[in-house]
Amino acid sequence: MVSSNRMSIAIAPGVSNGSSGLDEPKDIGEELKQTEAEGHALQEQSRDEFLTSQRPAKILVVDDEPIVRRFVVATLESRDFLVVAASSGQEGLKFFSEHKDVELVLSDILMPAMSGPEMVQRIVKLDPSVKIMFMTGTDPDRRLLELSAKKYLLLHKPFPVEILISSVQECLAS
Fold first, then answer.
1. In whole angstroms, what is the distance from residue 48 CA to residue 99 CA?
2. Model's pTM, two decimal places?
3. 3-state DSSP call for residue 37?
4. Which partner for 153 in 70, 119, 133, 134 could form a disulfide, CB atoms 3.0-4.6 Å apart?
5. Could you give the dihedral angle defined by the CA atoms of residues 14, 17, 22 and 27, in that order, rounded to the nearest 10 degrees?
6. What is the rounded CA–CA span in Å between residue 154 and residue 111?
7. What are the structural domains, with CATH classification, of the chain?
8. 136, 157 in Cβ contact below 8 A?
9. Residue 61: in which H helix or E strand, if any?
């Protein structure tokens, strides 16, 4: 720093050219280019880390009707969800116990041997935090009243793709 009675001058460190004995500032344009390049590299790294941390939700789809099951699985997979499918309550329970990272169970209500609600009752004992959705085409014994009291989301078959996707997203976000 050079001082006089009236002013102080700070000299930026830089590369000396050897002619004046004082350090001259570095080329600012080169420094800006380097800083921009480093900034872009950090942005790319941050974006990549964000994308890899945003893993898709794993969903267990349980329905004894093959056409419905295939439709639901294909729709969810087309939106980049990871999907495990089961054709019965017993198979759904088995798959859930084998795939501990399931975030949502989407099940039919009426199925032979073990109903959706019976399966879900056992699944919730294994993992109380798992999200649950039901789908049904009928309600002959008024089971929906009991399910809606527990605040499970219900889809009535047939349902359009948009309703399926928005309901799954809503359920996962809750």
1. 26
2. 0.66
3. helix
4. 133
5. -30
6. 16
7. 58-173 (3.40.50.2300)
8. yes
9. strand 58-62
Asked if residue 111 lies in contact with residue 63, where contact means CB atoms within 8 angstroms, the answer is yes
CA–CA dist 118, 109 (Å, integer): 9
Q: Which two tokens stand for residue 126?
A: 């294994």
Under 8 Å between Cβ of 133 and 153: yes
| Residue linked to tokens 């000299």 | 11
Interatomic CA distance for residues 22 and 2, integer angstroms: 11
Who's near 118: CB < 8 A, 6+ residues apart? 89
Whether the Cβ atoms of residue 79 and residue 169 lie closer than 8 Å to each other: no
DSSP state of 54: S
Q: Which residue ranges in the chain fall short of pLDDT 70?
A: 1-54, 139-150
d(CA 65, CA 68): 6
Model pLDDT for residues 13-34, shown as the tens digit of each residue: 444 444 444 555 555 556 555 6
**Counting every residue, how long is the chain?**
174
